[in-house]
Amino acid sequence: MEPQFLCVHHRQFLSANPCTARRYWERCMQEGQVFMTRSHYRSALPHFGSGFEIAMILLANDCQPVKVQGGGYADVERLVDAGHGTAVCYRQLGQFHLEKNYLLTTYYAVLEAGEFVRGDQSAIYREVISRALEKISEASLASSGLPGSDPTQHHVLSRAMH
Question: Which of 19, 24, 41, 61 is the 20 to 30 A CA-CA neighbour of 12?
Fold first, then answer.
């Protein structure tokens, strides 16, 4: 079972107020990043997890997921960043099943968002899909401890996905 980071009240409020949700997402991500840079993953997790849930809410209500909204991000990019941050926290906390769950949930949500992408936005969407795959692959290799988990080798994997 996946943990929930937002209460029902906040979930409903943010669903009804997408501009506020985007601002709150930004704050969650900034605060999570502060904790992550200090290697305080347990403290960063609720911030990234809340950001992930906010991004899922925004995507569920968004008919233009790759259109750049407030803060210079498309909602689908918000999901990729928050999903990756949440997964990294779980990896660092040794909860690998939750790490993989968030990575896969992020990837499939990005794929589903593609149903709403118009032709003129397809290049942006392809870039986001590529970035999501790269982050998922990077995180999976890092948690597996395989020889390919060396960050200097990520360009090889990245090229293979294009």
Answer: 41
Residue 20 has pLDDT above 50, yes or no: yes
Helix intervals (H) in 18-95: 18-37, 41-60, 75-92
Q: What is the CA radius of gyration of the chain?
A: 15
Q: What percentage of the chain carries pLDDT values higher than 90? A: 47
- Provide the number of structural domains found in the chain: 1
Give the residue numbers spanning the domain of 84. Answer: 8-161
Query: What is the pTM (predicted TM-score) of this model?
Result: 0.79
Q: Is residue 3 part of a domain?
A: no
Q: How many CB atoms lie within 10 A of CB 158?
A: 15
Q: How far apart are CA 154 and CA 136, in angstroms?
A: 12
Residues paired with 74 in a beta bridge: 68
123 inside domain: yes
